[in-house]
Write a structure and sequence with these properties.
By secondary structure, this protein is mostly helical. The chain has 4 helices and no strands. Helices cover 84% and strands 0% of the residues. It is elongated.
Length: 113
């Protein structure tokens, strides 16, 4: 019986580690794609018309959300911060936001069960 309790706790810790890794990787992807979007827009400016304000806001929100998710990734197991990471994943969007969202939901499920 005690062995099963240790096994369950080990599975929970491994799920939390995997969730933390998904949040970290998703945050890094959000930051890199945001920086590449800014760089690509700056390099193509002489050839194309300037970007509209919604495209600039989307890139900046994604970049700020990626930085926030990267700063919050060590606190993935704490339920309050995990809920904030889920919201960041929804707002950030893209592949990185999806990874942050999945990592947050997995951490929340592992923590509450």
């Amino acid at each position: 019986m005690l062995y099963l309790g240790i096994l369950k706790m080990d599975n929970r810790n491994s799920i939390l580690k995997a969730a933390r890794l998904m949040v970290t990787v998703g945050a890094i992807i959000m930051i890199v794609l945001g920086l590449l979007s800014i760089l690509g827009r700056a390099l193509s400016l002489p050839f194309y018309p300037p970007a509209n304000i919604s495209a600039i806001v989307y890139v900046l929100v994604s970049l700020v959300a990626g930085i926030a998710a990267l700063l919050l990734s060590p606190k993935t197991g704490v339920p309050q911060w995990t809920l904030i990471l889920i919201v960041i994943g929804i707002v950030g969007g893209g592949l990185g936001g999806l990874l942050v969202l999945i990592g947050g939901v997995a951490a929340l499920i592992a923590k509450l069960t």
